Protein: TRAP transporter large permease protein
Amino acid sequence: MTLVVFITSLLGAMAIGVPVAFALMFCGVTLMWYMGMFNSQIIAQNMIAGADTFTLLAIPFFVLAGELMNSGGLSRRIIEFAIACVGHIRGGLGIVAIMAAVIMASISGSAAADTAALAAILIPMMAKAGYNVPRSAGLIASGGIIAPVIPPSMAFIVFGVAANVSITQLFMAGIVPGMLMGIALVIAWQIVVRKDNVKPLPRAPAKERLRATGRAAWALGMPVIILGGIKAGVVTPTEAAVIAAAYAMFVGMVIYRELKPKDLPRVILQAAKTTSIIMFLVCAALVSAWLITAANIPGEITRYIEPLIDRPMLLMFVIMALVLVVGTALDLTPTILILTPVLMPIIKQAGIDPVYFGVMFIMNCCIGLITPPVGVVLNVVSGVGRVPLGKVVTGIVPFLLAQVLVLVLLVIFPEIVIVPAQWLR
Structure:
């Protein structure tokens, strides 16, 4: 019965328009009332405990690094570098979008921010070159969701805190799956772009490619510093986030000189707003997580899926299908915070590697960012690129299928994630 109370109270609150954070708190209060243990101190203590985590300090600094990167000209130079390298290939601007998305993902870790930067620059260029605009917008949206999978990733930080899993190991485990998502998009793009009668850009001379590489060198050095420092054990993910923000500010203000002192209050305020939303969600979710454990909801769910406990692959398929459905209605962070405390005890009981599951779970949640009706990244690319949402949904279909196929492949062959992750650890 506690499972029914949990689901009914959470979905009922969201159905009448209650913000997700308050819906999570309402769900926790309802469970407390049902179990006869209502105590306002439990709510306050769990919310404070949810925010009082050193690891979560990485979130505001990675958010700030992403804002500084876009305002300081780092994003634009990465795109120019990609155009110089692969713009001359057939369908080159699409490959530029994917290549730039992967590079930017290794810097900011924000799907919405990366998508906005790519859409603002590349959609007008692709339209002018004769590419199908809805399909181009769909490609850019699909490339944007690679950001939370390739480190540094705020989604991995939130999951790591909620599931008590090593964030460093999650970061290292996300590299190969993120690259596979990019490769899948390149293959899908090369198949569908044949329908567009476009001419590739002229091949950039070697001198121009070198010049573009030189201009982007400072931006390209950022992921090397972040991932290299974490892998070498020199810095923790939280310390890497601080370095990333400081580096982005230095490059934007001193090297590229596009970030002015007068821009800093606006950039910091935007980063603070984004951080406050994420942190409030985390705090509210900790209340529900505590009650989920106290009510033994994972135990109730385990009874329903007990026949699958000894069949990990089938269990993963069922869970991935569940997350995919939930992801169509919820944003990335709420999905992580709601489902992680419910699913992790089941995953541990089934003997599935928590790091592997974390990567698969985040990949699945990211796919939800480009699925209607919510599809946060769909709305970003529609608004920034000025493409009707319905047309973006149509254009995204082949790339959505490509990402789902990657997910299925990794469920069938978990070694693709586990083996490289163990080596990188």
User: Anything to note?
Assistant: The mean pLDDT is 84. The two ends are 42 Å apart (CA to CA). Residues 127 and 290 are 50 Å apart (CA to CA).
